[in-house]
Design brief:
Length: 287
């Protein structure tokens, strides 16, 4: 079966049907959760401290949910409107932007404490037109140059992607280095065709809190399937525990409703009802 990035541009490939199918696939959910946890591990953020992260190619918010659970504030960008629409329907906490990352970012310099990206970078390796600005080197240069500017010093960016050849890895790493990044490639389970995962671990400045953090982390070895199942099952257990403890957003009280309405207004959603003394009022039972 042909790879998705070879079939159509992402904003076309992930239409309404494909976006919902992708999001509701439990296998996809497991893989996304596993790789997001691994990306956060490689990001090496200070423990028990708040951080503001950029989720590049956030899609429908599967990776953003992990960031929420870990206590991070985040902003997500994606080029597929249908994916972002699904994210809005799922009421993710992060702010969302419709953005072609190949054209670069427009964030204020030093805005983010770190950045992650899951299964996105390979989409920049295909030219959609013959125009010079559509060439992979040009788009990658815009991407890495503006990403470097948007990150604080020191910080890290961890980008998981699926290269089809070593030449693509070399192209991506060389352009990232020219943009000012340090770091390199981390390969998990390199001897497994099925479990092999490639992460680009990039440093801005020292890339961490000490000189020892400048070394590129080592890839994982061993039984990937067992580790992935354990991580995913632990997450499911945490969600069940929250539901039993009443910490999930099932009880929609006045404060919850006001918070969501304010979030929708900030995102420019039309038709948000006005606040009143009746907002969130518990209605009497009708017999």
């Amino acid at each position: 079966m042909s790879r998705p990035e070879l079939q159509a541009p992402p904003e076309i490939y992930y239409g309404d049907i494909e976006a919902k199918k992708y999001t509701n696939n439990t296998r996809v959910q497991q893989i996304q959760a596993e790789m997001t946890y691994r990306a956060l591990e490689l990001l090496n953020l200070p423990p028990d401290e708040p951080a503001f992260l950029l989720d590049i190619g956030c899609g429908s918010g599967l990776s953003g949910e992990i960031l929420d659970e870990e206590g991070y504030h985040w902003v997500g960008c994606d080029i597929a409107p249908s994916m972002l629409e699904v994210a809005l329907e799922r009421e993710v906490e992060g702010d969302l932007f419709l953005q072609d990352i190949g054209q670069g970012f427009g964030f204020r310099p030093g805005s983010f404490d770190g950045a992650i990206s899951i299964s996105v970078l390979q989409w920049l390796l295909n030219a959609e037109t013959s125009h010079p600005t559509s060439s992979p080197p040009h788009r990658l240069t815009r991407f890495f140059t503006t990403l470097h500017a948007a990150l604080k010093n020191p910080s890290r960016a961890v980008l998981q992607f699926y290269p089809s050849s070593d030449d693509q890895i070399q192209l991506i790493t060389s352009i990232a280095q020219k943009a000012g990044f340090g770091g390199g490639v981390v390969v998990d389970y390199p001897n497994s065709k099925k479990a092999r995962k490639v992460f680009l671990c990039l440093f801005v400045g020292g890339g961490g809190a000490g000189a020892q953090q400048q070394q590129v982390p080592k890839g994982l070895e061993g039984d990937e399937d067992a580790e992935a199942r354990a991580t995913f099952e632990k997450r499911r257990e945490r969600l069940r525990a929250r539901e039993k403890a009443g910490k999930r957003k099932n009880i929609k009280d006045r404060d919850w409703i006001l918070k969501k309405k304010e979030l929708y207004r900030k995102r420019g959603k039309e038709g948000v009802p006005h606040d009143s003394k009746y907002t969130g009022r518990k209605r009497k039972a009708v017999f």
